[in-house]
Model the fold of this input.
Amino acid sequence: EIVMTQSPATLSVSPGERATLSCRASQSVGNNLAWYQQKPGQAPRLLVYGAFTRATGIPARFSGSGSGTEFTLTISSLQSEDFAVYYCQQYDKWPPRTFGQGTKVEVK
Amino acid sequence: EVQLLESGGGLVQPGGSLRLSCAASGFTFSSYDMTWVRQAPGKGLEWVSAISISGSTTTYGDSVKGRFTISRDNSKNTLYLQMSSLRVEDTAVYFCARRYDFWDYWGQGTLVTVSP
Done:
């Protein structure tokens, strides 16, 4: 099973600042990496797939990068609606599909 | 507009059974693999099961293998998850999602509570 590790667990950021979230895979997953945003009481929302391709309707302030075992999600200028929990997920090898434990982005 | 609407959750005793449904609309259901993902209260996301377009191929996570059965009825645009031998640790919100690799559309989830 591929283990996904996200850091930090919590990121405190002021509105308008940049946020950088990290995700590490226990073995290479190529570019088969997705990022999701989840707000309280809501379903996850796909942000990025293929490590760097934004999903339909996702603002350009969200960008994904990386390959192999190291990945980054960058939010260039945090808006109020961006405070949420973010998960990475690998889909290179399965079963199972595996998620990171999440990074909570909170208001500083 | 793509919509996925789960139903069937509720309170059940350990050892009991429950069947979840996911009604799909706004896309050609029979053209997509489908997946169930769950989230225990206050916890992260866990992949549960996936099913191929025709239903001929199914895959399960180790924690539910042998207890849960995924199925679909393409004539009814509906995905199912039959859960049996339920355990307290199966308590979670269960989401259905479109695709098998990454998930571009999700339902709002249905809560399953397993408690004596």
